[in-house]
From TrEMBL:
The chain crosses the membrane at residues 36-58, 70-90, 102-123, 171-190, 197-217, 229-251, 272-294. GO terms for molecular function: amino acid transmembrane transporter activity. The keyword Metal-binding does not apply. It is a multi-pass membrane protein. This is CTR4 protein. It is found in: Membrane. Keywords: Membrane, Transmembrane, Transmembrane helix, Transport. InterPro entries: AA/rel_permease1. The keyword Transcription does not apply. It comes from the Eukaryota. One of its GO terms (cellular component) is plasma membrane.
Length: 327
């Protein structure tokens, strides 16, 4: 039996292989990718990654079910925590301007086995994030047609009550993921140009939401008659922070694009700082507007912003917001 037991030298060699780090080339700027992305490109890429389902869905969900109007405080805390993580990404992105994001950073600095685990976590993160964004897109498009798509699917395909799953198969969300995949396959230049267009439209819609929302704001919606500013207390605020942190995970797409940036040492840190600052400001202001327009406990988690305008009698504004969420 003893001869089948691993020797200490074998175990040492195995540990060395599991913890070996990736060595970088002398010239890290050499790459097979096209270095075509500027600081503005990366900033808009980060904004597109963060200001998506979080703005149009997460704000309403957290406000109604977790924190109430204190979702504003949750976003402030989550934004600060994301800033600390973003500083780490900015440092790594400037030192290791290679595609791979957290996987590559871990492989270079810690070792192969840890990079392997991180890599699968990154894949899981993007899978869940993509699914959430697609579901948000589907929900807002469905709200434009008065939820006819949802009703048709439940009637002709079926529905189920399974925890952590939607009530019905969302074919529309699956289709948009396939379309997005097709656009991305054309390369960074094409997908970046499309991101510019959609981000510009989305930021215009957000500006409209803020202006129109503050015009329709009613301070009484934060009063004690409606439950107060923090109906769930400090525990609700911190629970909301944990959920709101998810809204900021998109900034790592900037570090993942380091190998396609013209000057990654300068562009990556600046783009991360700019995009995170703009996204945090947008989340805070939209949360203020949303909870002042209608009572927080009456929000529709699936399409909170569009539904708020519909209920205030501005159906055309709700349609515009739904179009912005699609962008």
């Amino acid at each position: 039996m003893a001869r089948w037991l691993p020797r200490s030298t074998d175990l040492t060699r195995l540990c060395q292989k599991l913890n070996r780090v990736k060595t970088l080339e002398d010239d890290m700027m050499e790459t097979s990718f096209n270095r075509c992305l500027s600081t503005i490109d990366l900033t808009l890429l980060g904004i597109g990654g963060m200001v998506g389902s979080g703005l149009y869905v997460l704000t309403g969900t957290v406000a109604k079910e977790i924190a109430g109007p204190a979702v504003i405080v949750s976003f402030i805390i989550a934004g600060f925590a994301s800033l600390l993580a973003a500083l780490c990404y900015a440092e790594f992105g400037a030192r290791v301007p290679k595609t791979g994001s957290a996987y590559m950073f871990t492989y270079v600095s810690v070792g192969e086995i840890w990079a392997f685990l991180i890599g699968w976590n990154v894949l899981l993160e993007y899978m869940i994030g993509g699914a959430a964004v697609a579901r948000a897109w589907s929900g807002y498009l469905d709200s434009i047609f008065n939820h006819k798509i949802k009703n048709f699917t439940e009637t002709h395909v079926g529905a189920w009550q399974v925890p952590f799953l939607a009530r019905y198969p969302d074919f529309l969300a699956a289709a948009i993921l396939l379309v997005a995949t097709a656009f991305i396959s054309f390369g960074a230049k094409v997908s970046s140009w499309l991101n510019h267009v959609f981000s510009a439209i989305s930021m215009g819609v957000i500006l409209f939401i803020l202006i129109m929302g503050f015009v329709l704001a009613q301070p009484k919606n934060w009063s004690t008659q409606e439950g107060g500013f923090a109906p769930y207390g400090l525990s609700g605020i911190m629970a909301g922070t944990a959920t709101c942190f998810y809204a900021f995970v998109g900034f790592d797409v900037i570090a993942a694009s380091s190998e396609e940036a013209r000057n990654p040492q300068r562009a990556v840190p600046r783009a991360i700082a700019f995009s995170l600052g703009l996204a945090t400001g947008a989340y805070i202001l939209v949360s203020v507007v949303l909870t002042l327009m209608v009572p927080w406990h009456t929000l529709d988690p699936d399409s909170a912003l569009a539904d708020a305008f519909y209920r205030r009698g501005y159906a055309w504004a709700g349609f515009l917001v739904a179009a912005g969420s699609i962008c």
